[in-house]
Specification:
heterodimer; A: 375 residues; alpha/beta; Rossmann fold; 15% strand; B: 60s Ribosomal Protein L30, Chain: A; 2 domains; 7-stranded mixed beta sheet; 8 helices; globular
């Protein structure tokens, strides 16, 4: 398969892994954070930890939109969809995320009209084919998915479609990275920068990380070779005592980002003064809301939202895991009360969540050796 | 809903509720077919129900699926499918031509599979229920000579064989629902696997220890069940897993793992190492078995789990599916 197999070629990958071993100083411990949940998933899926030297530790970052969404937002969205005239549309990623009264999938099994869509424009299409219903698209994601939400609202306005609204949970990546760096118990050497987000925002917004925080950051693709090359680039910078923003994912990410996408976002969205992040708490100017000009397509402005606030179970240590302070298995609930089948924290829900990824691909590898063969 | 998706929840339902209350043994062997001994004659008996949306899809339809699914459950139990009885649950208002088309499809599938449909029943439910139609089947088969299948006979060193490319059916259905805005040239793999099973048992019968058709929950779920039943580790070599490019591409786009996608015309077998080449050869020489492959082997560790060795020496655990596979976007 073109554009995939080239980046999974075992020979090239092994050579790159050799280069990593050559560059890594055996007397030093490296803590690299992969910001994006897609990277977390790829690390486990391709077994990359097995081919990295032990002194390179990968810390999972906050870039999983499902994981950082507070439970109350899901309940707010589902509360609006209790009206039998409302169709609740969302990405597959959202479907198993638990609210207080169940996940969208569980609500669907109990009769709620819940649809999985592949893009917000599919939700708009649903509105056109169901003119007697109101379609609410529950939008999640960083700058990766926000432009398609913006374009969908622009199209709804242009086409005069009024039975469609968007429940906006879009967040922005930079404040999350800043919150991680401000966390006092955080010691990081460098960042593997998010690839898909950067296709939209470009590389410039990361320059302060290099300039002010003196941490190297390499924007990376998602194939095994991409990630290993990015680690090589980070190790070279660390070895030379440099801190720069580099772009490994040039085939997709332009340095200046995607101006058309940014323009659409700026037209439709504005920054919220503050927004709650699961595990990280309230972060100022870290999320997007729909401007008044487009209030008609904003679920929150058009309907009365209950504004549910749900505190996470005290024992769950999602915040510490999300900030990279704890490893998933160090949380008290991990693998006991909290499993992918019955997630307590959102990090266990999404396959990009570090707990679910760790549980699926690593935890059982460790646990399995302790199981005895039955008689 | 997850209880019907073939993964962990399905298994828990069977082991936690059905087995203790309904079955004679509290911990029965959970195979594709039950083994009966009636007056000294051993028979295999299986039952299945079919709930598919849409009823027709590229490469097949619910009627064809009902026959082939039942035939395959018997085949992977080492039995020749002999007879099937069928029950229809029909939604009031279902067009007669739709029903007729499905009955014709069943007749053709039964003829191709060499199995007799010997009886049936029909119920009609209110409009708005039953998604058009549900079909339930029960099948009986006679054991082929030499077939002694038992997960507990699986040994370290045994080889894991697969009859052909995986994921065709599940991805076809996902696309046929029309909810995702892309198309692919892909067909369900629904077919009887009996000719392949028969050919393999004829050449390697004494070495075949276990078989399963990886339907809902895919290869990953079937092999996890095996791993738990035999208490050993199943190692798969990523590069040996046959997957069509179309299925791989769709899975890459949707964030799915082909190992979790349903199949309706494939089977897995565990074969003693000294019989593995003969078994593979028999499959490769049978029509429809050209892509069969040895995709892994049994080892002591990690006990009770399935481990995939990636192309570059890494590895990952592949678990059973929790619920249905859902596309992943962000």
């Amino acid at each position: 398969m073109r554009f995939v197999d080239e980046f999974r070629d075992p020979d090239v990958i092994n050579k790159t892994a050799d280069e990593i071993r050559r560059l890594a100083d055996p007397g030093r411990h490296y803590r690299l954070m992969e910001v994006c949940g897609g990277h977390t998933h790829a690390i486990y899926r391709f077994g990359l930890k097995d081919i990295l030297p032990d002194n390179i530790e990968l810390i999972h970052g906050p870039g999983c939109p499902v994981c950082v969404l507070p439970m109350g937002r899901i309940d707010d969205g589902l509360a609006l969809a209790e009206d039998p005239n409302v169709i609740f549309a969302a990405f597959g990623d959202m479907m198993r995320v638990p609210g207080v009264h169940g996940s969208p999938l569980e609500r669907k099994a109990r009769g709620m009209d819940v649809r999985i869509v592949y893009s917000p424009s599919d939700a708009l299409k649903l509105a056109k084919t169901n003119p007697d219903k109101h379609v609410m698209f529950f939008a999640i994601g960083f700058e990766t998915t926000a432009p398609s939400s913006a374009l969908t609202i622009l199209r709804a306005k242009a086409e005069g479609i009024h039975n469609f609204s968007l429940f906006c949970n879009h967040v922005t990546i930079i404040p999350a990275i800043r919150a991680i760096l401000d966390s006092p118990d955080m010691r990081l050497d460098a960042f593997i920068g998010p690839g898909h987000v950067s296709t939209v925002i470009g590389c410039r917004p990361y320059e302060w990380i290099a300039a002010n925080e003196r941490k190297p950051i390499v924007v990376s693709g998602f194939e095994p070779l991409d990630m290993l090359q990015s680690i090589v680039m980070l190790l070279r910078q660390l070895k030379a005592g440099e801190a720069r923003v580099e772009n490994q994912y040039k085939r997709v990410v332009p340095w200046e980002g995607n101006r058309a996408a940014l323009k659409a976002m700026a037209e439709v969205f504005e920054l919220r003064p503050y927004f709650e992040w699961r595990g990280l708490g309230f972060i100022s100017q870290s999320a997007l809301r729909i401007r008044n000009n487009y209030a008609e397509w904003d679920s929150e402005q058009r309907f009365t939202v209950p504004g549910v606030r749900v505190t996470d179970p005290k024992a769950a240590q999602c915040g510490e895991v999300l900030k990279g302070v704890l490893k998933p298995a160090q949380c008290k609930l991990f693998g006991k009360e909290c499993t992918p089948e019955h997630p307590v924290g959102a990090l266990m829900v999404s396959s990009e969540g570090s707990c679910a990824a760790y549980f699926n691909y690593e935890h059982r590898k460790a646990m399995a050796t302790t199981l005895a063969r039955p008689a | 809903m997850a209880h019907g998706a073939g993964g962990i929840a399905s298994r828990r339902l069977v082991e936690g509720l059905f087995a203790p209350l309904l079955f004679r043994s509290a911990r029965p062997e959970l195979n594709d077919a039950a083994s009966l001994n009636i007056g000294g004659v051993r028979l295999a008996m299986t039952t299945d129900s079919f709930v598919v949306k849409p009823l027709k899809f590229p490469g097949g339809s619910i009627g064809e699926l009902a026959i082939n699914g039942t035939v395959n459950d018997l085949a992977v139990s080492g039995a020749r499918p002999e007879a099937i009885v069928v029950s229809f649950v029909l939604e009031a208002g279902l067009p007669t031509e739709v029903l007729e088309a499905e009955v014709r499809a069943m007749a053709q599938a039964a003829e191709r599979a060499g199995v007799a449909v010997v009886g049936g029943d029909t119920k009609v439910v209110e409009h708005g229920k039953a998604d058009g139609m549900y079909i339930a089947t029960t099948g009986v088969g006679s054991y082929l000579p030499g077939a002694r299948l038992d997960a507990r006979s699986v040994q370290p060193g045994d080889k894991v064989l697969l009859s052909g490319p995986i994921g065709d059916h599940g991805i076809t259905i996902l696309l046929a629902r029309g909810e995702l805005d892309f198309e692919a040239e892909l067909q369900s793999d629904t077919r009887s696997v009996f000719p392949l099973v028969q050919a393999m048992l004829a050449e390697a019968g004494p070495g075949v220890r276990w078989m399963r058709d990886p339907t809902r929950g895919g290869v990953a779920t079937s092999l996890n069940e095996l791993a738990r039943d035999c208490g050993l580790g199943i190692h798969l070599f990523e590069e040996e897993i046959p997957v069509r490019d179309t299925v791989r591409g769709a899975c890459e786009l949707l964030g799915l793992d082909p190992l979790h996608i349903a199949n309706e015309g494939q089977f897995l077998a565990v074969v003693a190492p000294e019989y593995a080449d003969a078994a593979l050869n028999a499959l490769n020489l049978t029509v429809g078995g050209e892509c069969a492959n040895i995709l892994g082997e049994v080892q002591e560790q990690p006990a009770g789990s399935v481990l995939v060795k990636t192309l570059y020496g890494g590895s990952r655990i592949v678990d059973m599916l929790v619920g249905d596979p859902l596309p992943r976007i962000c």
